[in-house]
Amino acid sequence: MKKLLVLSTALTAVSFAAQADVTVASWGGAYTQSQIEAYHKPFTAATGIAVISVDSDNPGPQVKTQVEAGNVTIDVADVEFSDAVRLCDEGMLETIGMDALPPGADGTPAAEDFLPGAVTDCAVSTIVFSTIYAYDTTKFPEGPTTIADLFDTTKFPGKRALGKRPKANLEMALMADGVPAADVYATLATPEGVDRAFAKLDSIKADIVWWEAGAQPPQLLADGEVVMATAYNGRMFSAEVADGKPFKTVWDGQVYEYDLFVVPKGAPNKDQAIEFVKFATSTQALADQAKWIAYGPARKSSAALVGLFNDGKTEMAPYMPTSPENMTNALASSYEFWVDHDAELNDRFNAWLAAN
Amino acid sequence: MADVSASGPILLTTADGRPLKEALARAQGQAKRRAFMLVLPLLLFIVITFLWPIAQVLHQSAYNPKFSDNMPKIGAWFAANPIGTEPDEAAYAALAEDLKAAAAAKTVAVAGERVNYEMPGTRSLFTAGGRKAKTLEPPFKEAVLAMDAKWGDPALWGVMRQVSSAYTTDFYLAAVDLERDPDGAIVQVPENERVYVNLFLRTFAMSAAITVICLILGFPVAFLLSVLPMRYSNLLMILVLLPFWTSLLVRTTAWMVLLQGQGVVNSLLVWAGILSDDGRLEMINNLTGTVIAMTHILLPFMILPLYSVMRPIPPSYVRAARSLGATSWTAFRRVYLPQTIPGIGAGGLLVFILSVGYYITPALVGGASGQLISNLIAFHVNKSNNWSLAAALATILLAAIMLLYWLYDKLVGIDKLKLG
Fold first, then answer.
1. Residues 92..111 of B with a Cβ closer than 8 Å to A: which?
2. A224 and A282: one domain?
């Protein structure tokens, strides 16, 4: 609801905006807020170019729709890795490239400063985010601790909120079913593996509440609609630390990946858009963002600058997906897998959802 | 008489000597043109914003040039060689040239996506092929197969032949859970991938249920509206219209607040001791939530046509029936009810057609079990970007509604429809 309001306001704003403003489509809520603080405001201060923020459940498909329809209104979009690769393959993105990016604040060339694989021809990573699950500590003082507990309704009864998409759910289901993180995608590439993942999801289907926008799971937890929820880790951090909700994140079985900025082909303000991407992925901007939300910066030189949350007392390290203590049983999301199997698994997932 | 026939018919002329008939036709033609000019803006508006988009959707449901436009040479080979021809060196040469050209134009993934719809997992075969296509040298058959042995799969060649024609029925097949097997025969998709037929059935069943509930709830209200003295009925009318004027989103969100587990209704029931705290009713994120919210939202569409039909029915008819010895039930059934049929038809048709295409409410309160076919159409438009499939689903929905409209015309007569 709120999202729709913001979206319609933003769309109205777009139509009134001056030509040179950069329109950035992102995921809304606390995440967009962190980008506004760390990227948009400093960028406007430095260049005089206003930045308009548009919210979306997932900007990737939106970029594709706009480019295919030949009516591009977005200048910069924040997308997942599989979408960045796919859109780039289909010639729907402007090329940015490593050479265009500024070196780190310590002088390290961009190619060495970014984490491995974080920059592609068309896309530049901003952060590492993770899909985790969190629970309501008032319901479970002892708390679930493993990914298997998410699927254990006998030990931890109550509703769970899961994202309404196959991605991350299938991986988590397999890990909960005992597949080691390293074998998850090999298993999921076989029909038996897909069946196994769906069977595991099926075991808790009656207890699942589905969310579509990233801002929903903390809301569902806070409303008491569910006792645990999968979510993007930064959202749960914001609810937990900034809003002081009684939630706790479980890092076991987290699925992490990069989030990237792309510029759609035919973006109305392409030059300003690329300037914005360069600015937003600089050492300082990435480090600043970590002050607002618990996503790991994609530049090594930024990591050193990350310290406290903007409340001035919370250490960010324990909340970062990339912290060693959070990585004991973690899975790197495979864009190669999802680029290829997205359509097929979406069909299967929709059929499974619709079946009673 | 003889004079007249000799000199031909007498021509009536206007004052300036022109034949009257011609002058009249001219004047009338002018008036007609002027009248037409008046409706022209509306006509253009309807054609541009309504008929043209529908035509486009219809076209898109059967036309998908993603493969044929980007891989023209292999299409030519398929056209020249009948089904069952083993792909020869010429075929692989055409494939290699297409891959090269498509890779240069960055469209190889677009072509791959079209094949991927029919044969999941092949998209990366095309993108990888595009990356390596520059290095391909004759003999092409060996070169292509050396790139990836999957290129020799007869099923892949079958699918490529199928998608090399831009006009296709594939999306209609997919929309009713059918597909072509490698031999070209039409078969059902595997059971765990069937979704659309069930959703169509669920959509129609739920729309019918909502229509019936609306009728049961709306009929007494409309009756009350039509018989109450004006000052009371006006007040009641405002109660009907006020929600009607409120934004759809606001009303749906209000239902979310009311119906959720920790929501107003459940909390009241728990407070009153009717429910235990663990036994809270599940009224949202499922079918129940969708039916409750949609019934409330669509109720005015039932009440208003009913009211407009009931208002002019003279109360003396029922009184006459009673005075002739009919019981109140008989008087209602034989005298009053038949007179309200045009209103029931109009309200029923309106509510049913609106609920068949409903999108926002099921998306917000429907959870998984309360989803309707329109949510899947939206999914394919916004998320999976398979517009052809979305168009095929929408076309089937449109056809079903036209059929319903035709049936109504046959059974009740469209001229009896009274919308207000």
1. 105-110
2. no
Mean pLDDT of B367-371: 82
pLDDT over 90 (residue B366) = no
Report which residue type is found at A291: K
A341:B383 CB<8 A: no
Question: pLDDT for B240-255, tens place per residue?
Answer: 998 888 898 899 999 9
How much is the ipTM here? 0.78
* Residue range of the domain that includes B204: 196-416
CA distance A57 to chain B (A): 10
Residue B376, chain A, CB below 8 Å: the answer is yes
Q: Which of A62, A90, A347 sits opposite B110 (nearest CB)?
A: A90
**DSSP characters over B69-127:** HH-HHHHHHHHHS-TTPPP-HHHHHHHHHHHHHHHHTT-HHHHHHHHHHHSTT-HHHHH
Q: Which residues make Cβ contacts (< 8 Å) with residue B17, sequence separation at least 6?
A: none
What digits encode the pLDDT tens for the residues B312-324? 999 999 999 999 9
Q: Which residues of A touch B194 (CB under 8 A)?
A: 351
- Cβ contact, residue pair B124, A350, below 8 Å: no
List strand residue ranges (DSSP E) for B109-233, in order.
178-180, 186-188
- Cβ burial of A143 (10 Å; 0-12, 13-18, 19+) is middle
- CB hemisphere CA count around A246 (13 angstroms): 11
Neighboring chain A residues of B192 at a CB cutoff of 8 Å: 198, 348, 351-352, 355
With an 8 Å Cβ cutoff, are A210 and B382 in contact?
no
Query: For residue A276, what are its two tokens?
Result: 């914005």
Tokens (6 digits) for B25? 């036709």
Q: How many domains does chain B have?
A: 3
Helix (H/G/I), strand (E/B), else coil: A297: strand
Interchain CB distance below 8 Å, B109 and A86: yes
Q: Is the pLDDT of residue B233 over 80?
A: yes
- The answer to whether residues A274 and A148 belong to one domain is no
Name the residue range of residue A161's domain: 130-257+327-354
**Looking at residue A10, which CATH number applies to its domain?**
3.40.190.10
The CATH number given to whatever domain includes residue B229 is 1.10.3720.10
Tokens 């923020």 belong to A53
The 10 Å Cβ neighbour count of residue B22 is 12
In this predicted structure, which of A16-20, B10-14, B118-122, B315-319 has the lowest mean pLDDT? Answer: A16-20
Q: What does the pLDDT look like over A84-131, one tens digit per residue?
A: 988 888 889 999 988 889 998 888 888 889 988 889 889 999 999 999
Task: Specify whether A104 is located in the same domain as A141.
Answer: no
Structural element, H or E, at residue A215: none
B279 in A contact zone (CB under 8 Å): no
CB pairs under 8 A between A and B: 98
pLDDT in tens, B12-67: 787 777 888 888 898 899 999 999 999 999 999 999 999 999 999 999 999 999 99
Please name the helix (run of DSSP H) or strand (run of DSSP E) that holds residue B228, with its range, or none: none
| Bridge partners, A22 (sequence order) | A51
B164 CB neighbour count, 10 Å cutoff: 21
Q: How far is residue B288's CA from residue B304's CA, in Å, rounded to a whole number? A: 25
Q: Are A73 and A99 contained in the same domain?
A: yes
Is the domain of B388 the same as that of B281? Answer: yes
Query: Is B288 within a domain?
Result: yes
A346 neighbourhood in chain B, CB within 8 Å: 383-384
Asked whether residue B335 falls in the same domain as residue B263, the answer is yes
Burial B37-57 (b: 16+ CB within 10 A, else e): eeeeeeeeeeeeeeeeeeeeb
